[in-house]
Amino acid sequence: MMAKQNNHASYKILAIKAIHYAFSIGSFYLFFLMFRYGRLTNIDIIGFRYNYFVSIGYGILLAFFNRTYNSFLFGFSRIRSLVFSQVLSQFFSLGLIYIIVSIGWGRLADLRLLITLLPIQLVFDIIWSYLSNGYYYKMYGKRKTLMIYRNELDKRRFGTIHGKPTERMYEICKEMQYNGSFSDLKDRLNGYDAIFVSGVNSSCRNGILKYCKEKNIPGYFLPHVGDTIMQAARHVKAFDSPVLYVSRKELTAEYAIIKRLFDIISSGIALIVLSPIFLITALSIKIFDNGPVLYKQTRLTKNGKEFKILKFRSMRVDAEKDGVARLSAGEKDDRITPVGKIIRKFRLDELPQLWNIFVGDMSVVGPRPERPEIAEQYYNKMPDFRLRLQVKAGLTGYAQVYGKYNTAPYEKLEFDLLYINNMSILTDLQLCFATFAILFDKNSTDGVDGITADYDSTSPKQDDNGDVRSL
User: Fold this and answer.
1) Considering the entire predicted model, what is its pTM?
2) pLDDT at 240 (0 to 100)
3) What mean pLDDT do residues 203-212 have?
4) Complete edge-to-edge strand list for the sheet that includes strand 194-198
5) pLDDT per residue over 404-461, tens digit each?
6) Taking each helix axis from N to C terminus, what angle separates 338-345 and 275-289, rounded to the nearest 10 degrees?
7) Phi and psi torsions of 462, nearest 5°
8) Would you list the domain boundaries of the chain?
């Protein structure tokens, strides 16, 4: 019965998405005809097929950006987040198709297409998001939820659904601290519509996982590093048993060439286009305290190779005069200058890394490079942190788009491994565009408290089975 209900719900969600695409592509087609011919009737037959393909191209771009910005994440997103993701999707889709059409015509297309269509889409997106989210909550109702965790740290790692949109979907009826066998737990799982699991031992967790599958109820599990690594496993068909093959990640020759070309072209164009911002930022830093404009720091990239990362200086010149490596505490950090607060707010301090990308020290997308001193502290508590060094360091990545500056090292490692598992040109493009969204998220730059990350309270250690677990 539950499976049948879920199938019906999935079809309804598909219908909701289809309504959005139908309106967006249909309105684009009508406005494109209007501003191309000045009328909607008696369109010449020769141009009809061209108009048709332009609309299909717009639809493909819209689908790409909707996926990039999670525009259909009903239930888990607030209305404003859904609208914001839709606006970004429409903006980039319309902007790119406008550029493509202009290049094809050899002249600038009518700007009224953008000026008129964007506000109309905005109004539609607000109404659609409000109705769709409300319908989603009504369709699924509120699920009686059980949270199982090993200790208080594991509970905190999972976070809370209170005060979030998910509170309307999942009602935590019971919180259970448990790390025993699944056989002793199984009978206590009855009567719940969803289960959240964090930190329990592998045997018990696997039992809960199978239980969720059998009962067809949603289960949310915080992964171990081993789980993330196994996602990249490949089935080897040379054996009589289902064998999974895992090895150190290496880029294919084709992907490595395309990725490097993308790095050179994108960083080169950005350096030229953003040169006025470079100049203004540099002058502001120099005029404020007459100190150096750029800040060079040793960081680690692929296979532990060291390089000098470039940043616009946002702290006092004597910020680390005692030689101790410190992570930023965000806006509370008194080492940050007034100019530094502004350039950090708009991420301008990171712009010089475009040169690191251009010369090959970094890539546009990849794990953020750590300082050797701080990385060494991570390694002592969490040896698997070295797995991030399988690929070249990057300007942006999963941890930056889906986490925060103060995301715990263990979560950063898992985010980075997820990227390494799913590396592709399409993934890189999605992360590049998704980075624009976090520029408007104030929480993404929250700092950390203390001299360095709180390793003892947030960092994992090895368990008896060799997996990485939180302390």
Assistant:
1) 0.82
2) 82
3) 94
4) 170-177, 143-149, 194-198, 219-221
5) 666 788 888 999 999 999 999 999 999 999 998 887 766 555 544 443 444 343 444 4
6) 160
7) -75, 140
8) 2-139, 142-222, 254-470
Q: How far apart are CA 467 and CA 439, in angstroms?
A: 35
Q: What is the pLDDT of residue 453?
A: 40
Q: Is 270 exposed, middle or buried (0-12, 13-18, 19+ CB in 10 A)?
A: middle
Three state DSSP letters for the chain: CHHHHHHHHHHHHHHHHHHHHHHHHHHHHHHHHHHHHCCCCCCCHHHHHHHHHHHHHHHHHHHHHHHHCCCCCCCCCCHHHHHHHHHHHHHHHHHHHHHHHHHHHCCCCCCHHHHHHHHHHHHHHHHHHHHHHHHHHHHHCCEEEEEEECCHHHHHHHCCCCCCHHHHCEEEEEEEECCCCCCCCHHHHCCCCEEEEECCCHHHHHHHHHHHHHHCCCEEECCCHHHHHHCCCEEECCCCCCEEECCCCCCCHHHHHHHHHHHHHHHHHHHHHCHHHHHHHHHHHHHHHCCCCEEEEEEECHHHCEEEEEEECCECCCCCCCCCCCCCCHHHCCCECHHHHHHHHCCHHHCCHHHHHHHCCCEEECCCCCCHHHHHHHHHHCHHHHHHHHCCCEEECHHHHHCCCCCCHHHHHHHHHHHHHCCCHHHHHHHHHHHHHHCCCHHHHCCCCCCCCCHHHHCEEECCCCCEEEC
Q: Which fold has domain 142-222?
A: Rossmann fold (3.40.50)
- pLDDT at 468 exceeding the cut of 90: no
Residue type, 299: R
Whether 456 and 471 have beta carbons less than 8 Å apart is answered as yes
pLDDT at 321: 62
345-371 pLDDT, tens digit per residue, is: 888 999 999 999 999 999 999 999 999
CA distance 68 to 432: 9
CA distance 392 to 377: 21
What is the bridge-based pairing of β-strands 294-300 and 143-149? unpaired
Helix axes 425-438, 253-273, angle to 10 degrees: 30
Nearest to 178 by CA among 145, 214, 203, 215: 203
